[in-house]
Amino acid sequence: MSVSARHYGADANELVRSGDDLRRRGDLVNAETLLRQAALLAEAGSADRDLANALNVLGMLCKELARHDEASALYQRALAVLEGSSTRKDDDIAALYHNLGGIEHARGDFAAAEPLARRGLAIRRSLGDEDAVAADLVALAAILDGQQKFDEAERIYHEALTVLDRSPEQNAGDIAVVLNNLGAQYVARGRPADALLLLTRAERLKRRCLPERHPDVAVTLNNLAEAHRREGHLAAAEQLYRQAIGIFETTLGAEHPKTKACRRNLSPLEHSTMSTSNESQGQQATVRIQLTAEQKSVVKTAIDRDADAIELTVEELESRIAPTGVTPADPGFFRLAGNHNETFLKSDS
Amino acid sequence: MPSDQKRVRIELTSEQRAIVKEQTGIDLPAVDLTIEELESRVAPLSLNFANVHFNP
After folding, report:
1. Phi and psi for A336 in degrees, rounded to 5?
2. What is the pLDDT of residue A308?
3. A307 in contact with B at a CB cutoff of 8 Å?
4. How far is it, in rounded angstroms, from Cα B2 to Cα A153?
5. Among A41, A45, A164, A262, which has the highest number of CB atoms less than 10 A from its own CB?
6. What predicted TM-score, i.e. pTM, was given to this entire model?
7. Residue numbers of A between 110 and 129 with CB closer than 8 Å to B
8. Do A60 and A79 fall into the same domain?
9. Do A264 and B32 touch (CB under 8 A)?
């Protein structure tokens, strides 16, 4: 390796460290500037791992900015660089499979994400790093959540927590992610009271580990708002959504999918919290249907929006059930072809 | 609502049907919405996802 190439590599690594530090603190704009410079320098250097590292961290930033195609291309290039390198390390390869799975998760293509995550996990298990295995397990569980394999995901979250709890200070960030994801799962499964406990802990941990206005804090605030909303705590939900939107707007921008999603989540509350009594709030209990990748594609095609779920109020479900085998003629309503059986939801679904 | 408005039908999986049934008692094979209804009922909820990166 030439002297100049070594310098390029050293400078690139320094820039990656600085850029990644900014990224972790939520300063994504300045992080991107540094990481792009790092990638250019690493390209000029001759160390495969330096280049793969720069591409990988830039990929993580692109993912946070919802530039999924670019992030995927960066990870794949990093993987190709390492797979053809004599200095490859298996834990790097595992990290890239983990991150490639993460892109498919972010896109909502959970079926594509699962084999990538499992491949990374299998490599990681062979290396014996239990904390890293736990982080991969959490990622896999989130992908299973997306496919509504809730029982398996829940078991895996608990398996990961058992490992992470052995070093709670060191793993506080990962523990917060597990609590956030498990809490979100409980919301999706209609267990908002359980969700509130976990999401409150997740928020507390994230506030301890992350800057006050970090987008990951806002993610949990959004989920916490959703749990409150499902419990009928509409004022608390609205306040949390507004906090989350404020953070998303300043860190990710007004047009980022998370900002827009959070604003849409808030929208119905802006109307319903104006003068609703507790009794009428109870009538607004909703059923949340998490969408599969195929269903998301249907929604995307129809309305050009990314959606994780659709929500229908219990009242709507009640009043619009069509008798089995009969196609309702009134196109003014959405049709629920099925039988209404016995029990009705008590409070919040 | 105009009768010729485009509609979207979403067939529910068995897992989704079970969730709806558990929460409401209603057995629901599919939902059928107008575009306008779908617009007002999509509710994204972001999950977190941990990235792992190298330790150079």
Report:
1. -115, 100
2. 76
3. yes
4. 43
5. A262
6. 0.70
7. none
8. yes
9. no
